[in-house]
Specification:
By secondary structure, the chain is of the alpha/beta class. It has helices at 3-14, 24-30, 79-93, 111-122, 143-153, 161-175, 186-198, 207-214, 218-239, 254-266, 286-297, 313-324, 330-340, 344-356, 380-391, 399-410, 416-425, and strands spanning 21-23, 34-42, 51-59, 99-105, 128-133, 242-247, 273-279, 302-308, 360-363, 366-369. The protein has a five-stranded parallel beta sheet with strand order 5-6-7-4-8, sandwiched between helices. A three-stranded antiparallel beta sheet has the order 1-3-2. It starts with a helix and ends with a helix.
Length: 426
């Protein structure tokens, strides 16, 4: 059992009832998103030195996503992709109507950073931006769209259940034209009931709404809820063009993807709504089927896929200079660029690690290297990323681990023919 697993087991066993203890390494990665007490230095059995421990208290109400990047770096090598996104945005602003775009790329190549740059250039005055994210663990059914509706309705963590009902009611009255029969009639009450159920609101004091939910079969309730979400997004977009950013769809639950297909079909083509799907190029994931279905079923809608590749070497050098604000010795720069292979996340993490370990010092626009250049160590953060990629491999096939081992021995590049030959002979 490795040190990380050993420490996690110790933290779990020592934490009190309903407490979450985390290590210094974990706290560094999540501190902008959570509140905690600490550090407290504790000596654990089997570990030689005292370990700084934080006790998590609560999640922060609002998280600046920029904390996930350690540097405020420029966006390099992505002008073509930004122009394409700009064309889709201009289409909904000029009245062309519904748009679909997929941003596809490996972990760390800058999919999220590209969207952030796009948003910064566009601003918030022209369009409404709503974001839903899928998660590798702890995924909630329909979690993607629940997150979007929370933003659209203005829900906060501090809201009481009554406050959330009021926000939902006010939004529905607004989109159904307050004062008309529909704003107080069956359509309004049905939408309120179905969306309340979708958002897991408490029906204990709303028996009439609860009855509307209970009288429907499961399949009928699902369909009526999908229509209510469609109406809500359609009315919102007709008031002001709407962009839905759907991140990490390679982890999305099937229910969210089914709802995405439904909404993309049922929202009228003239509605200024832009769907932006973001995911990794893992073709075994359900999102690939979803995207292909959308393209095949709706040929009249402008659908385009933007594939994000690793940076060209010259762009990697520009990013490296921008991160450090100084020029590295050529040998060290070559080592870093070779080790990161055009991946912006890898490059940022390597640079951060070298600065943190005082191997590089920034002084008056110069980079001082404080050690004899030998090689580049892999930081813990990158080791975790690489391990997560390995964990996604299908190891139920006994040959998968052997192929990975052979490829690691061969080096950075290999051919399928060479791997096949070694696999059958080793």
């Amino acid at each position: 059992m490795g040190d990380t697993v050993n420490l996690a087991a110790r933290l779990m066993s020592e934490a009190g009832d309903k407490e979450i203890w985390i290590s210094h390494q974990v706290w560094e990665r999540i501190h902008a998103g959570f509140k905690a007490e600490g550090p407290t230095h504790i000596k654990f059995d089997g570990i030689d030195e005292e370990i700084p421990v934080w006790r998590l208290k609560s999640a922060r109400e609002w998280v600046d996503r920029s904390w996930q990047r350690d540097f405020d770096s420029i966006t390099v090598g992505r002008e073509t992709e930004l122009e394409k996104l700009g064309e889709h945005l201009e289409a909904i602003l000029s009245g062309v109507g519904k748009q679909m775009v997929a941003i596809i790329g490996e972990i760390g190549v800058g999919k999220t950073r590209l969207v952030e740059e796009w948003r910064e250039r566009t601003g918030v005055s022209k369009v409404i931006w709503l974001t839903g994210r899928a998660y590798a663990y702890g995924q909630t059914t329909y979690g993607l769209f629940i997150e979007i509706l929370h933003q659209l309705l203005g829900f906060t963590d501090q809201d009481t259940d009554g406050a959330r009902w009021r926000k939902l009611s006010n939004q529905l009255k607004h989109i159904l034209q307050e004062g008309s029969e529909s704003s107080q009639g069956d359509e309004y009450l049905n939408h309120q009931a179905y969306l309340g159920q979708f958002l897991s609101l408490d029906f204990s004091k709303r028996e009439e709404l609860e009855t509307r939910v209970e009288k429907l079969s499961g399949e009928n309730l699902r369909l009526q809820t999908h229509w209510a979400i469609c109406d809500l997004l359609t009315h919102t977009a007709r008031e002001k063009p709407l962009v839905l950013i759907l991140e990490d769809l390679h982890w999305a639950d099937v229910a969210s993807l089914d709802l995405l297909e439904f909404v993309s079909e049922q929202v009228a083509n003239d509605v200024p709504l832009l769907f932006c799907l973001i995911y990794r190029p893992q073709k075994e994931r359900p999102v690939w089927t979803t995207w292909n279905n959308i393209k095949r079923t709706y040929p009249d809608v402008d659908c385009s896929a933007i594939e994000i590749k690793e940076l060209e070497r010259s762009d990697g050098a520009k990013l490296l200079f921008d991160l450090l604000k100084c020029q590295l010795p050529e040998r060290l720069q070559t080592l870093i660029l070779d080790a990161t292979d055009g991946n912006p996340l890898y490059l940022e993490e390597i640079v951060h690690d070298l600065l943190e370990r005082d191997i590089i010092r920034q002084t008056d626009g110069e980079c001082l290297v404080m050690w004899e250049t030998g090689g580049i160590d892999v930081p813990d953060t990158l080791a975790q990323v690489i391990q997560s990629r390995i964990d996604e491999l299908e190891f139920s096939n006994p040959g998968a681990l052997q192929v990975l081992w052979l490829a690691s021995v061969i080096g950075d590049e290999s051919t399928q023919e060479l791997l096949s030959h070694l696999y059958t002979t080793v």
